[in-house]
């Protein structure tokens, strides 16, 4: 089946829906820690987005998972690529995205990023550059860029699952919205002004759409103002941030309701609506497999020591994020016990969870960590000189090593 033809599948895929035997076999064959990404699920998530936002442009925020296997699946499923760096732009082109489906969102862009993206634009003049600072435009001028420009507004409305992922009101991102119409009028004479953009933050929940609605309402007003001054825009991009249920009992986002609220808040505009989800596309398409190394009875906790840590999956340490964990080797009938699951890194923050029930943990057991597809491998590091894990990609019954495990030799390879 072609990824573009996938149906949307269920609204959420929880950890217990993965084939446990298959995961245990993968851990045996490829060793742990191991990321597993299911490309069929990526295609389903893309299909649900395309169907809910049928009349919109759906762009995939590459930063959530920039692996080639995912990018190719997303491209085949008809999504565009929203890239946060020159590196992501390169990855998108390697994955076969045509220039008219690549958008580069410049955030305090280093000179080298602008050099490379402008070079790519000369080969692919349909590429779009989004600017979030006035002097980025000067820097593009200096490089001879006069192509498709989008302006990132700071709408003064932020949202997100954690203060560290709320962007819409953060001074770092975008140009204050009240200044954008004047700048758009000026820049429309110098560039091909195609759109306006804003992103509230990451982790929109179904219960509270108010920040999202308010951002979209402000962007609708902005688009109407700009269109009245300079003529039609191609798109109004209201960002990504669609949340996924990390907790087992959390309901999935009602995507149709979000899409309807978005259209209603936007109002009448000439421009096409655009959204740019990352997490929603890949989060529940990925799990992390890890092996228990030690089980220790501490003063007031049972500490389960595993071979994955904050260098493998940073989200719990960085955002106190919850990820479901299950013991794939635990006896079915064993009573769960209360555990702390901790990694091998010498940092107190290197804890995946505390006070979590886990069925009888034994040394050598394989644990699965859910919703690890988004911002998992991408935020991994080699801190404590731990090589990055491997990743396998599943498609139907086939398994492919998508990224090989780093070796100790890789760790020193860059040193002179
Ligand atoms: N568009 C822009 C301009 C963004 O900055 C982001 C995310 C997205 C789209 C996609 O947001 P998403 O749909 O994935 O929520 N590392 C954090 C998330 C940081 C998101 C940064 N920007 C985490 O693991 O929760």
Summarize the structure.
With 416 residues, the protein is α/β, with parallel strands linked by helices.
Write the layout of secondary structure elements.
Elements: H1 20-30, E1 34-38, H2 39-52, E2 57-61, H3 68-76, E3 80-83, H4 86-94, E4 102-105, H5 111-123, E5 128-131, H6 134-142, E6 148-154, E7 175-176, H7 177-187, E8 192-197, H8 210-230, E9 235-237, H9 255-266, E10 272-275, H10 279-282, E11 286-297, E12 302-306, H11 315-319, E13 325-327, E14 336-342, E15 351-359, E16 366-369, E17 390-395, E18 398-403, H12 408-412
Parallel strand pairs: 1-17, 2-3, 2-10, 3-4, 4-5, 5-6, 6-7, 6-8, 8-9, 9-10, 12-14
Antiparallel strand pairs: 1-11, 11-12, 11-16, 13-16, 14-15, 17-18
Attribute tags:
nine-stranded mixed beta sheet, 12 helices, 416 residues, eight-stranded parallel barrel, 18 strands, alpha/beta, globular, Lyase, Ornithine Decarboxylase, Chain A, domain 1, 30% helix, TIM Barrel, binds ligand LLP
Can you offer a commentary on this structure?
The chain is an alpha/beta fold. It has two domains: 106-277, Alanine racemase (TIM Barrel); 284-412, Lyase, Ornithine Decarboxylase, Chain A, domain 1 (Beta Barrel). Helix content is 30%, strand content 23%. The chain has twelve helices and 18 strands. The chain has helices at residues 20-30, 39-52, 68-76, 86-94, 111-123, 134-142, 177-187, 210-230, 255-266, 279-282, 315-319, 408-412, and strands at residues 34-38, 57-61, 80-83, 102-105, 128-131, 148-154, 175-176, 192-197, 235-237, 272-275, 286-297, 302-306, 325-327, 336-342, 351-359, 366-369, 390-395, 398-403. The strands form two sheets. Strands 1, 11, 12, 13, 14, 15, 16, 17 and 18 form a nine-stranded mixed beta sheet that branches. An eight-stranded parallel barrel has the order 2-3-4-5-6-8-9-10, surrounded by five helices. A hairpin with a 4-residue loop joins strand 11 (286-297) and strand 12. Helix 2 packs parallel to helix 3 and helix 7 packs parallel to helix 8. The longest helix has 21 residues, at 210-230. The radius of gyration is 22 Å and the shape is globular. The model has no long low-confidence stretch (mean pLDDT 95). Ligand LLP binds next to helix 10 and helix 11.
């Amino acid at each position: 089946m072609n990824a573009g033809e996938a149906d949307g599948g269920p609204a959420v895929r929880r950890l217990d829906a993965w084939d446990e035997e298959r995961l245990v076999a993968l851990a045996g064959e490829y060793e742990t820690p191991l990321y597993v990404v299911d490309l069929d699920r990526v295609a389903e998530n893309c299909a649900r987005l395309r169907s809910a936002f049928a009349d919109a442009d759906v762009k995939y925020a590459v930063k959530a998972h920039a692996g080639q296997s995912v990018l190719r699946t997303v491209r085949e499923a008809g999504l565009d690529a929203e890239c946060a760096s020159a590196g992501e732009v390169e990855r998108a082109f390697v994955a076969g995205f045509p220039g008219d489906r690549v958008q580069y969102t410049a955030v305090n862009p280093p000179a080298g990023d602008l050099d490379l993206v402008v070079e790519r634009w000369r080969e692919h003049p349909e590429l779009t550059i989004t600017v979030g600072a006035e002097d980025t435009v000067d820097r593009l001028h200096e490089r001879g860029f006069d192509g498709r420009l989008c302006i990132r507004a700071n709408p003064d409305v932020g949202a997100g699952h954690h203060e560290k992922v709320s962007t819409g009101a953060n001074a770092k991102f975008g140009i204050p919205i009240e200044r954008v119409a004047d700048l758009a009028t000026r820049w429309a004479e110098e560039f091909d002004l195609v759109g306006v953009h804003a992103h509230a933050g990451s982790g929109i929940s179904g219960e509270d759409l108010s920040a999202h609605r308010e951002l979209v309402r402000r962007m609708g007003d902005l688009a109407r103002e700009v269109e009245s001054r300079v003529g039609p825009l191609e798109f109004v991009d209201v960002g990504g941030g669609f949340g996924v249920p990390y907790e087992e009992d959390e309901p999935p986002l009602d995507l149709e309701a979000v899409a309807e609220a978005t259209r209603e808040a936007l109002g009448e505009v000439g421009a096409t609506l655009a959204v740019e989800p990352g997490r929603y596309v890949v989060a529940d398409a990925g799990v992390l497999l890890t092996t228990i190394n030690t089980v220790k009875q501490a003063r007031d906790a049972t500490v389960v020591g595993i071979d994955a840590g904050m260098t493998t999956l940073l989200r719990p340490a960085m955002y106190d994020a919850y990820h479901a964990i299950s013991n794939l080797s635990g006896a079915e009938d064993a009573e769960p016990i209360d555990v702390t699951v901790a990694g091998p890194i010498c940092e107190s923050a290197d804890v995946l969870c505390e006070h979590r029930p886990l069925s009888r943990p034994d040394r050598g057991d394989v644990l699965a960590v859910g919703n690890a597809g988004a911002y998992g491998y991408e935020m991994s590091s080699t801190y404590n000189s731990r090589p990055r894990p491997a990743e396998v990609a599943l498609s139907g019954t086939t398994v492919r090593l998508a990224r090989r495990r780093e070796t100790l030799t890789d760790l020193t390879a860059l040193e002179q």
